[in-house]
Amino acid sequence: MQAVYETTLEYAQSKDQVDTLFPFRERFHFPQHNGKDVYYFCGNSLGLQPKSVEYLMNAELRDWARHGVEGHFRAAYPWFSYHHIFTERLAKITGALNSEVVAMNALTVNLHLLMLSFYRPSGTRYKILMEAGAFPSDQYAVETQVRMHGLDPEDAIIEITPAPGAHLIEDIDIINGIKEAGDSLALVMIGGVNYYTGQFFDLEGITKAAHSVGAYCGFDLAHAVGNVPLQLHNWNVDFACWCSYKYLNSGPGGVAGAFVHERYSNDAGQFRLAGWWGNDEKTRFKMEKGFEPQPGAAGWQMSNAPVFNMVAHNASLDIFDKAGLDALRAKSVDLTGYMEFLLSQVKHLDFQVITPSEPHRRGCQLSMLFGNNGKKIFDFLTENGVVADWREPNVIRIAPVPLYNTYEDCYRLYELLMAMEA
Known about the structure:
The protein folds into 2 domains: 138 residues, Aspartate Aminotransferase, domain 1 (Alpha-Beta Complex), CATH 3.90.1150; 263 residues, Aspartate Aminotransferase, domain 2, CATH 3.40.640.10. Helices cover 36% and strands 14% of the residues. The strands form 5 sheets. Strands 6-12-11-10-9-7-8 form a 7-stranded mixed sheet, sandwiched between helices. A 4-stranded antiparallel sheet has the order 13-14-17-16, covered by helices on one side. Strands 1-5 form a two-stranded antiparallel ribbon. Helix 1 runs antiparallel to helix 14, helix 8 runs parallel beside helix 9 and helix 12 packs parallel to helix 14.
């Protein structure tokens, strides 16, 4: 049943008064505009800083000062095993087994490492299928992986585009493209949530289609993790990677993550590039030749855990644990629905929301496609304390994040749009 909303400040404030997640807003630092908190709708680009980061960072600095190199084993969170503190929480957020996830590296680094393991073109099976208009890093990674194998991207890469006149790529078009490629397809590599439109693809259906033609299937979950419900293990996904600085609020350049399904992650013979930190912890300090991978996704690690880089990740995942994934998703659906309702009342400005309306096909991002004056409107919002995101050529992206955005935030954005001249 569709929610019934109202376009009044009193209504928005009444929703906030009964929102059990409202207090979590106080756990974050907000940038200031004219001495007041901004209306921050840019968590899909960079999440806000948890206030606990400073305390946790100072604790690590104290351990470094107190213990020096012995902090690897004597710190409150020993650096030798630091990445293990994320395992259970990342598994919950991604719908994975504990052994299938690891916090490591940066997003595109992980994408390259995983593609080296899973893009193994041979004979007539050499093509990669992806969505047209993917985030540039994905396009660059796929293109260069193809070239590394001596293949021509124009031939080896299949891009699925929206139908003429449409803005969204339908899941059925991806699935049909997979079936059409058939046994020429080596890999499907899709962005789980499209950065431009905010569309959440049917990852389970896409994975099933890829496997039906004998291809591997992997996902870039940069805009999905911490935003939409994921069940990577049950969906039988082969691999996935993500960043943590968007919805996971882990700071600019924060440590990324990777998922490798247990059928590969527990196979020591599965090809991967080897690094010291990926070696079995029980034999790591023997310093011998002959790589022995750790069980699970941790066997894809390369170098020492970047502890200071990981501190904010620890702080944010603790907040996710306390808030609860089900509660966050329920609020996300309602808050985003409210924002969409308010935008639908703005009749005098030339824009349309191109993000799917169905809750199961989106997270909390809404993409407003403007016919004219989009940049002027974006600048007006910025001058009035709204932090949103402009994407060329003509989209304003807004993300009412359930951890720290409020119904009143959404109303204030609507109020400003209503005050804007056409």
